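Notes taken during the Thursday session

The instructor put the following on the board and asked us to keep it in front of us for the whole hour. The protein is Phage holin family protein. We were told not to look anything up and to reason only from what is written here. First, the residues (132 in total):
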Amino acid sequence: MDINKETRSLPELFTDLMRETSTLVRKEIDLAKAEMSEKISQTTSALTSLAVGGVIAFAGVLVLLDGIARAIAVFADIGLWAAALLVGVIVLVIGLVMLNRGRHNLDARNLVPRRTAQSLRRDKEFVKEQTR
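Then, after some discussion, the predicted structure tokens were revealed:
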């Protein structure tokens, strides 16, 4: 449209404002959808890490129990049970690290759609400026 803002009537300006607001709302909804899709993917990845970490930690517990059982069964052979305990501790530590990573990724602060919230704040300020 070639018409300057100063020469348009109030109803035209109001119509333009409504149309642009509608477009803005649609674009914000699209942004929110895209960002929520990204957050769902992040949550899925975090849940996968938690599941894998849980399985690995469980395997570590099993190996530790096996080491204890071997230590009791073969009390005289210290090398066998010590090796089993060492392997169990290593597997357990790996599992705990993965559990911690998954828990961190599920932190509520990591799931907030920050870009959408920031964009909505800017849009609110813009609309305030335009309606003055």
